[in-house]
Structure formats: C-alpha cells, structure tokens
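#struct-pred

JT: dropping the chains for the assembly here, can someone run the whole complex?
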Amino acid sequence: MDDVKDFDLWLRLRTARRQSIAYALTDEHLTVLMCNQAMNEWATGGVDDLVGQHLPDVFYELVGIEDFLYHLAINHGDTFAIPRIYRSTSDGQGRYFDLQIEPLAEFGTTLLVLAMDVTEQALMEQRLRQRRNELLLLQAQLSKANEQLTYLLHHFVPQEVARKLVSDPHLLRPGGEQREATVLFADARDFTSMAESLPPDQVLDTLNAHFEVIADAIRKYDGTLIEYVGDMVMAAFNVPDDQPGHALLGAQAALDIQRGLARFADECLGSNMPVLHFGVGLNTGPVIAGYQGTRHLYKFATLGDTTNVAFHICSRAAGGQVLISQHSMERLGRRAHVTPLGTIHLKRRRALLPIYELLGLEDAGTR
Amino acid sequence: MEMPLLQKKVCLLGDFAVGKTSLVRRFVYDRFDDKYISTIGVKVSRKSLIVPHDGGTVRMNMLLWDMAGGEDFSHVHASYLRGAAGAILVCDLTRAETLESMSRYAGDFWSINPTSPLVIVGNKVDLKDMRAITDAELQAVAESHARSPWFTSSAKTGEHVEELFQALGQLILATR
Ligand SMILES: Nc1nc2c(ncn2[C@@H]2O[C@H](COP(=O)(O)OP(=O)(O)OP(=O)(O)O)[C@@H](O)[C@H]2O)c(=O)[nH]1
Ligand SMILES: [Mg+2]
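RK: done, full complex below.
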C-alpha cells in the first residue's frame, strides 16, 4: 500500500521535473520538507535551499493565507491556485509563474506546492492588454474631446445650425442658399451712455441678463439666434429650416420680447440691476443663408437687403416698441393690430419704406 | 523596546491605468514613470512602515498586491484577494467612469474579506484641468462604503501617497 503511495508521489514529482515545473513539499505549517532547484529560483530574491524555511518568508504571496492553507492541509480541501505571479529579472522584462497548492491526502497533512513558468503566455497577454487598454484610453479621450466640441458648437453657433452640422458635416463650407426669411433685430436704447456710468464688469452682466430674456422669447417661437453684436441681438425665422408662418412667429416673438422685458424691469425694481429698453424691428423677404467667411473662420449668417432693412427699422424703434415693414405686415394680414407710422427714407435709396408699429396680434395664440 | 512585527496583505484595486502601479512605485521606491505599462497578473512588493497605535507605535510590513486593472464587469480573481487585511480602491480623477467601478471592487473584496477596511483614493490630482470627479463625489462613494477614509493623491508629485497608506495601516490595526 505504502509502495503505491510512494510511487504516486514519485510519478508526480518526476512529471513535474520533466515539464520543468518547480515543486516543494511542505507540512501544514508551510515549512518546506523538500523541493527541487527550480523552486529555489522562484523564491523572492532567489535562495540556495528552501528546505526548512517557512514558505511565506520567501513567497510573500502566501502571507495572509497561512491559516487558510493550514486548513487546506488538515481538511484536504480543493487545490488553491494563484495565477500569473510576477518576478523581476535583471533584463527588466520579468518572469511569471502560476502557483498551485494541493493537499496530498495520502501523506497526511502534506502540501504539494507547484510553480509553473508561464512567462511566454503572460508576456503575450501583456502585449494584447497593453494595446487594448491604450485603445480604450484613446477612445475615452476622443469621446471627451467630442463632447467638448459639441458643447462649443451648440453655444457658439445657432442651435438649429449646430444640429444640422452634426448630422451632416458636409454642409460646413462657405456659401449659402437664397430663401425667404423673417429677420428680427432687438437693440438697446441709450446703452452707451449707461455703460459709461457702470463699472466695467457690470456692463456685460447687465447686457447678458437682458439678452437672456430676449433669447428666451426667440427660442419660444423657434427662432434661430444668429448673433449678438454689441448691445444688439439678431434672429431669423425660416432659417436654416423651413418654418411655415415665419412672419407670424417672428411677430409673436417680437411682442413677447417686449412683454418679457417689461416683466424683467419690474423684477429689477429695488435691485441694483440697471434696466435697459430695447427697440425691436422686423422685416420679411429674401435672404442668403449660409456660411460666411474663409476656410479659416466660418460664421453662419443671413445676409441681404432684407436684413439691412430690418436693422434700419429696428434703429427707428423707441424703447418698448416693435416696428415692422410693409412686407411683414402683408404676411400677418388682418390679424395684426398696427398703427401706420408713415415712411422712412434709407440712405442711398430712392424708394420710401412704409413702417408700422405692431401693437398686438389677434387669434395667434401665445406660447 | 522591541517593536512587534506584523505582516499584512493589502490589495490595490481599480480600473486599468488609474495609477495602482504608480502609487506602489511612489510609496515603495519613491519614483515615478510617465510611461504606461499595463500590469499582468500580480506583483507583490513589501514596504515597512511605522504605524501609531494605542499610544505607541507598531512596525508593519505591508505586502502590496498590485494587480491588473479590471475591465468592464470583470471580477478580480478571488485567490488574489484571499487573506487581505485591507484594500486601496483607486480611481482616476480625470476619468469619471473609473469612480463608477468602485462598488464592484468593494463588493468583490468584501465578499472574501468581510471585515477588512478600505481606503478610497482619487489619483492624478495633479492633472487639475482634466478633473472629472469632484471631492464631493469621491466623498459620497467613500461614505457609502462603510464610511471609508478617502484621499486625492498624485503618484506623480507624491501628494498624499504616504498618508493614504498610513491611514490604511492604522485602520488595519484598529480592526484587528
Ligand atoms: N499625471 C499623473 N499621471 C499618473 C499618476 N499616476 C499614474 N499616472 C500615469 O497613468 C498611467 C497609468 O498608470 P499605472 O500606474 O500604470 O496604472 P495601473 O492602475 O497600474 O494600470 P493597470 O496596471 O493597467 O491596471 C501611467 O502613464 C502613469 O504614468 C498621477 O498621479 N499623475
Ligand atoms: Mg499596473
């Protein structure tokens, strides 16, 4: 019987030696009873002879699990393995081994400790993992950069335009298309003189607070904010996408701007926020909508006579007033409550332009 | 007076490239390397530290298990965790997703060592402009994991590196 057991152990150790597997036998307290040379080499720092040593003293990987291994030896539990343990080498590349500890039930409380060299597989895994992790990091960086660009795009370019650009980047080239649009300008009255009396940091805050109210009204009627120029806001309707009834939407937004600003002025009472008054002008007609600029810097723009006229009409509007052109008036039809204000004369133009003050809209519904 | 010597196994856990290897390298060798070399398997380093305890001090040998960082949903090899007296959970302050994995690592760790303490670490605090995780978010994660102490660290500058290992050392002594 004992012969069979001895033979079994002999066979296992011989197989280990054949496959250049390092082995050691320990008692349940992890004191080394015997081992082969290869095992000495895996010990931390390498040792001459492990026999008689407490294994965790030279295999730090076993610190903390002494009790666990004691019970493994006593109770003949399942084989315990720690894969891919690293040891440094003088060439810097390092070596790896899988450590396996199994109780030898036939020999009482003896443990068989095997260390299998897996350097080749581990180095291959390392190269694969390295490449994969680097790719994942790059991917994360790219998606972060993408998020930042999207944020920039949506805040420095009109939102509808940004949305179109993201879905179809080919659109981004200088040039434009002619289409009909309703163009709206809102311009602060007496801003320059007020700005001079304010500390510089309060000038922008004041302007921005008012722009917020104006932009809200424009967005409410799906207008496209084209740009802020100094103390002026420019928006357009039916640009870049089709918006049936764009003159009406523009007129509703214009009235809403004045209502919003009046409310805001009330809220500002008693605070130290100076109140600004804006004139609003509206015109409807053909524009060129598209990207203006050079390959170095593009800007989305709606250009043309319609825009110029809208600008001039706005400049005639007093604070709190909405002025509209004949073209816009015709589009609004009888819904519009207006007071004709006669005609204005634009520089270098023969024709006189009739203008109207928009007082309200019938049945248009507000949003 | 002869100080009693203690040997304690400590695991470093966290997603890949958060700086586990770099933290060990800073703590043990006081060095830093900008180059990223992903860890395979496990490398155990030993560092001796003096930990205040019960009005005196205790010398502790920490056996630091630096392992391969996890990938999404993968779990740490149970045999790497067995017998650990504590763990350091590391995230990268510049990558928000690395904070989200913290509970998974804590879960893995506590399923094997239910009473061992954790320290939560947000690493790469030197990269201020790229920061994606706030102190408050880190603190919330620490609170929800047994009110573990938390640190923001930099393996690059050494900021709070010594402190975070010291904190774990003290917690290990306190929970003995
Ligand atoms: N700026 C900065 N870079 C750091 C810091 N810590 C680590 N790094 C860098 O981050 C990269 C990853 O660091 P590692 O320590 O290898 O990360 P790891 O968590 O061990 O990664 P895995 O082994 O793949 O799990 C390396 O390029 C390091 O140089 C830090 O505190 N600040
Ligand atoms: Mg590493």
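JT: nice. Residues B 20-21, 39, 66 surround magnesium ion (ligand 2) (CB under 6 Å). The CA atoms of residues 112 and 123 of chain B lie 25 Å apart.
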